Amino acid sequence: ITREGVTVELCIYRLEHTKWTLEVVDAEGNSTVWDDEFESDDDALAEFERTVQQSGMLEFMPAATKRPN
Q: DSSP class of residue 8?
């Protein structure tokens, strides 16, 4: 997914006997995994969308390339 000039890999998956997991991987391979699990893949996607709406895609930009405030 590319938005606001930031590209990430969005991973929504479920292992056997678990609920859905949300993970975002940045361009450097750094991973952000939500602690909470989700009832459905749609719920996980909605959480990603909420996070982007609240914090923006810069939340997932590699630390080495973030611009100082």
A: -
Q: Pairing mode, if any, of strands 20-25 and 31-33?
A: antiparallel
SS3 assignment for 41-69: HHHHHHHHHHHHHHHCHHHHCCHHHCCCC
- By the 10 Å C-beta count (0-12 exposed, 13-18 middle, 19+ buried), 37 is classed as middle
pTM of the model: 0.83
Q: What are phi and psi of 27, to 5 degrees?
A: -65, -20
- pLDDT single digits (tens) 24-63: 999 889 999 999 999 999 999 999 999 999 999 988 876 6
